[in-house]
Each structure stands twice: as structure tokens, then as C-alpha cells.
Design a protein that fits this description.
single chain; 616 residues; alpha/beta; Gyrase A, domain 2; Rossmann fold; 4 domains; four-stranded parallel beta sheet; 24 helices; 13 strands; globular
């Protein structure tokens, strides 16, 4: 067990000795923000003291009297209002490094209590190309599933694709009457997008004509626009008809729909293959259709939902104070009555119905401890309503699972607006990845023109895709960020190329040695210089960082840890000669430290879904 875990267990035991009834699950040890105060720190005693109206420094003093960490720590000091600061013994630091060098661990332990987590992410729509916005859900979700798996948790990743709904009536109508066969063969998804736009334009034109006619007939009647909409358009009615045929299983419509899904999935798989993203299951919205009627019937039978103006919804009914009732929040933050509709007035179902059925299926199939939805922040109100509606519907089941919405912000252009092409279109994800690789290829070719083109292409692929992923994972996920090619591809600063270069630089050291493996087998590490000790201590924080990512579902913690690691290594490398060390023992110790740094960089980047290369 790693030192910080040993200290944490001892601290929890000491707190229990002072406060026998205390919940010590939140009594944790974390890296000290300022190394001059120590290696680790805990602020948990202040929260406990506040809860119990105790003096926090006195509680810290009483706890310290019961705390025995002499095996690992030089000193434990009380600071401020009740912080505890821990400083590791150099001997413990050395032993931990040597164990990692022998392959016993890589500064992290598997979770003592493994949990089952469903991670729902990416979720593109059928018959549409994946666009730049999908990089957020896909990258964040993939990094989270990789982190959870690395720590020993059971993960089920689910790509809940949008493969059902009103749009398929429109698409099938367009497919039957407007399809350009040649264009469809060249690029099926682009042709489906064209059909959808064409049908939408046709509907808008017909509805406008109907409204104009209604006004001409009744120029003083303010309700004529409503009358016009009720009449609808010829195309709307045709689309509704095609949708009904699909819903009733008409073979021709089902065959067209299945072809759309297969062609879209082929596009999805190509993108995911480039990004190195894999899913355990891909259960789209259509998968849950058989249970939607049962969901609504159950909600009605239990008195949780009720009919209103022909629709069925779960209403808040003012049962909770407004500030605590998510049913009263819209996406603009205004307090409004907003029921969770589960059946529309025309008898159709919606996302809420499907999502309730999805939770029910996941609980019955995988019995997860947690279900994580990686979906943009704009859907926050939907998930608030979903979670509370499910809790009212199945309170016992809801008590056994943690439902979490992992929201994220938008990708912006230099103008501060959503990132678009120059023509104003949404940027296709495939085109974005192509451009990333081409820009990286230009940089690699300028720096290493002597390398064979195939090798430069491969390096550019790794650097380009890694740069896009890392730039997306680095910000606080709930913040918007500005997409900037020059910044994300830079070899300086907190970027993927900087980290990849740090890894490649370390590997270049070992290429200069004969039998490099023999230099780092069973090494004796003797970190002595300040830069060596700083690097060594930072390595020990890798596991704590992974745990924080898994607990708070924030991959940016790992990005910042890796950047700090690369920065520590740079200072170490500049100030501590490795191959030209004063003696063989110092050289081998520093080589082992280099190797451990490379291994953590590689593992950390891999956990973010980013590859490395040994030469740049």
C-alpha cells in the first residue's frame, strides 16, 4: 500500500479514537499545495469540527495525540485553523520509488472496493455526421472510463445513439421521393443530411403558403396562424404517415431505417477508430421502444404521473421549495413550472420516457452502483428532472444507484461564438481530425525533414489527434474554451505535444545506452538534489490524482498533473546530469528516475486516450 494510503488509514483511526461516532470516509490525505509545508495535507478536521461546533485546532491537537505515523513521516504539523501537514521520510520515498522501478506498482493502488459504473457518452445522431461538439462528450467520457478501469472498477460504456424519433419520418419521406442515388453512393450521410434539409425547407415553404392563404381569407382573425398550423402541409402529413409506418413495422420503412443506422454506424466506427475509443454496448433510443408504454402505465398507476391537456407528465405540484425543486428550473435559470412530460398529446413518447426506460434496463441488467451521463450542460435541467422522476417512480432502486450528469461547456471560435467553418457551417469531426494531422505533419516535416514520410505521417497522426483531445480535456469541463490550432500544437506550455516531447526526450536518453534495461533493473535510488527530490515526490502523487479524477469526474486534474510532472522533469534534466553523472550509482539512480517519469507520462496520457511516440 502506498504511503499516502497508509497515512490516511492511520489518520482515520485517530479521528475515530477521538470521535467514535464520526464518519471518517471524507477524512482524506491530499498533496500539499505548497511543498515547503510538507508532502501531504488533510483539512478534513475543520469540517468535522464545524459540524460538531468544536474548536478545529483543538480537534487537530487531540487527533495528533492519537496519531502514529512515525513509520512514514518525519513530522506532522498543525497549521492554520486545523490543517495537518505530513512530511515523508526520504527513506520511505526511496523505498516507494524502488518498488515502482521493480514493477510492483506505478504509484497507484487498485480500489479497495470496486464498483460498477455505467458511462453513457458520445451519443451521436443517426443520419448526421459527427461534428466538433462530439469531441467533448467522446473525449471526456473515454478518459473517465479509462481512469475507472485503471483503478479496478467494472465499467460498462454505452453509446446511446439517437436512432429514433420524428426526424426519421422526414428522412424516409425524403429517401423515397428525393434521393440522389449517385450522391448517396458517394457519401451516404451527406446525402441524408441534404434530404433532411430539403424536407425541412419544403415543410416551411408549404406552412408559409398555408398561413398566407389563411390571412388572405380572414385578415382580421388573430387565430389564423394557429388554424394554418392545424391544417399542416402536404409534406408534413406525408412524413407523419411514413413515421407511423415505421412505428408499426412496415417492412420497406424498417429496411430504409436500418440502412440509415448501418451507414451511420460505419461513419461512427471510422471516427472512433481514429480516436481509439471503444464501447461495450451501443444501445440506441430505439432499443427501449418496447417498454415505453409500460413506463407510462406504471407512472400513471402509481400516481406519479397524471394527464394534462391530453399529455402525460410528472409534475412537481409545489411539493418542494422552489430552490430545491429541479422541475422549476429552465435552461436560462428562470423559475417556471416545467413538468417532466412522458407522453405527448398525440400519443408519442419523448426523451424523458426513453431515459426512464434506459435507467430501468441498466439497473436490471448490470446492477450498477453509478450511472454517469457525459452530456453538455444545456441538458442539465433535463437530467435533474429525469433523476428526480426516476426516484419518485422507483425509490428503492434509486436508493441503490448514484445518478450523475457530467456536464460540459461549449467549444468557441476566436470570436467567442460557437466554433464554425468560415461559411458558418458546423465543423465535421472527421474534417477537424484531418486538419489536425495535416498541421502536425507540416510541423514534424519542418523539424525532422530527414525522417521517411511514412514515419513523419505516423508521428503527425499521434501528435495531431493527441493535441485536439488534450486541448479539450485540459479546461475545467464546465467551462467554454476557445479552439486555437497554434496553441494546442505548441511544443511549449500545457499541451499534448509538450508532454509527448518530454516522453520522447526521455526515450532518447536510453537510445544512447547499450543494454538500457540492465541499468534500471533492481536499482538503488538515491535522490538528493532538490530537483531530484521534487520530481520523486511528484511521482508519488500520480495515484492520488487518478483517484481525484474518478471521484470528481474531472480529467483536467490528470492533465495538470502530467504537465507539472513534465515541468519537474525538465528542471531535473537541466540541473542533474544523467549520462554524465559523477559516478555510476548516481547515473543509474537518475536513469531509474527518468524511466519512472516516462512510464507515468505514458500511462497518464494513455488514460486520457492519447498515444505517445519515442521520437519526435
Amino acid at each position: 500500500m502506498l504511503p499516502h494510503k497508509q497515512i490516511e488509514l492511520k489518520l482515520q483511526a485517530a479521528v475515530r479514537a477521538v470521535l467514535p461516532d464520526a464518519d471518517v470516509s471524507a477524512v482524506l490525505v491530499r498533496p500539499c499545495p505548497d511543498p515547503k509545508f510538507g508532502d501531504y495535507q488533510s483539512n478534513a478536521l475543520m469540517s468535522l469540527a464545524k459540524q460538531r461546533k468544536l474548536n478545529p485546532r483543538q480537534l487537530a491537537t487531540d487527533t495528533l495525540a492519537k496519531l502514529d505515523v512515525n513509520e512514514w513521516c518525519e513530522t506532522v504539523e498543525i497549521a492554520g485553523a486545523g490543517f495537518l501537514n505530513f512530511r515523508l521520510k526520504v527513506s520511505v520515498l526511496t523505498q516507494t520509488l524502488e518498488a515502482a522501478a521493480r514493477g510492483e506498482h506505478l504509484f497507484f493502488d487498485k480500489a479497495s472496493q470496486s464498483k460498477t459504473v455505467v458511462v453513457d457518452f458520445s451519443s451521436p445522431n443517426v443520419a448526421k455526421p459527427m461534428h466538433v461538439g462530439h469531441i467533448r462528450s467522446t473525449g471526456i467520457g473515454d478518459a473517465l472510463q479509462r481512469t475507472l478501469r485503471l483503478l479496478g472498477h467494472r465499467v460498462i460504456s454505452d453509446n446511446h445513439i439517437g436512432d429514433w424519433g420524428t426526424q426519421f419520418g422526414m428522412l424516409i419521406c425524403g429517401y423515397k421521393h428525393l434521393l440522389d442515388v449517385a450522391a448517396f453512393k458517394r457519401s451516404p450521410v451527406d446525402e441524408l443530411v441534404r434530404l433532411y434539409k430539403k424536407i425541412t425547407e419544403q415543410i416551411q415553404k408549404e406552412e408559409s403558403e398555408a398561413e398566407t392563404a389563411a390571412w388572405a381569407k380572414n385578415p382580421n382573425d388573430i387565430a389564423v396562424d394557429i388554424e394554418a398550423r392545424d391544417v399542416g402541409s402536404k409534406t408534413v402529413n406525408e412524413c407523419r404517415y411514413e413515421l407511423v409506418l415505421l412505428q408499426r413495422g412496415w417492412p420497406e420503412n424498417v429496411a430504409i431505417w436500418k440502412e440509415m443506422i448501418a451507414l451511420s454506424q460505419k461513419q461512427f466506427d471510422a471516427i472512433y477508430g481514429r480516436l481509439g475509443v471503444k464501447f461495450d454496448v451501443t444501445l440506441g433510443e430505439s432499443f427501449y421502444n418496447p417498454w415505453l408504454g409500460e413506463v407510462v402505465a406504471s407512472l400513471l398507476a402509481r400516481g406519479i404521473a397524471r394527464e394534462s391537456e391530453g399529455a402525460v407528465g410528472v409534475f412537481s405540484d409545489g411539493a418542494l421549495p422552489p430552490k430545491e425543486d429541479p422541475f422549476l428550473v429552465n435552461r436560462d435559470g428562470e423559475w417556471v413550472a416545467d413538468p417532466a412530460l412522458v407522453r405527448k398529446s398525440d400519443g408519442g413518447f419523448n426523451y424523458m420516457t426513453t431515459d426512464l426506460a434506459t435507467i430501468d434496463y441498466r439497473l436490471k441488467t448490470w446492477a450498477p452502483d453509478e450511472i454517469v451521463y457525459v452530456v453538455d450542460d444545456r441538458q442539465g435541467p433535463h437530467f435533474k428532472k429525469l433523476f428526480i422522476a426516476f426516484t419518485r417512480w422507483q425509490p428503492d432502486a434509486a436508493g441503490k444507484v448514484k445518478l450523475v450528469h457530467v456536464g460540459f461547456g461549449k467549444i468557441l471560435g476566436d470570436d467567442g461564438r460557437p466554433f464554425k467553418t468560415r461559411s458558418g457551417d458546423t465543423v465535421k469531426l472527421g474534417d477537424l481530425l484531418d486538419e489536425a494531422e495535416e498541421r502536425a505533419f507540416k510541423i514534424v516535416s519542418e523539424k525532422n525533414p530527414e525522417l521517411p514520410e511514412a514515419q513523419r505521417r505516423e508521428i503527425a497522426r499521434v501528435i495531431g489527434l493527441g493535441a485536439v483531445k488534450y486541448a479539450d480535456l485540459l479546461p475545467n469541463r464546465q467551462s467554454d474554451y476557445i479552439f486555437n490550432w497554434d496553441k494546442m500544437l505548441a511544443l511549449q506550455g500545457n499541451t499534448a505535444p509538450y508532454l509527448q516531447y518530454a516522453y520522447a526526450r526521455i526515450k532518447s536518453i536510453f537510445r544512447k545506452l547499450e543494454n538500457p534495461e540492465s541499468r534500471i533493473q533492481n536499482p538503488e535510488l538515491k535522490p538528493a538534489a532538490p530537483e531530484e527530490l521534487a520530481l520523486a515526490r511528484h511521482l508519488l502523487n500520480f495515484g492520488i490524482t487518478l483517484e481525484a479524477v474518478a471521484e470528481e469526474l474531472r480529467p483536467n486534474y490528470l492533465c495538470n498533473y502530467l504537465y507539472d510532472l513534465a515541468s519537474h522533469f525538465s528542471r531535473f534534466f537541466e540541473n542533474c546530469p544523467v549520462l554524465k553523472a559523477d559516478d555510476a550509482a548516481t547515473r543509474d539512480s537518475r536513469l531509474a528516475l527518468c524511466d519512472l517519469t516516462a512510464r507515468v507520462l505514458k500511462q497518464g496520457l494513455e488514460t486520457l486516450g492519447i498515444e505517445t511516440v519515442e521520437q519526435m
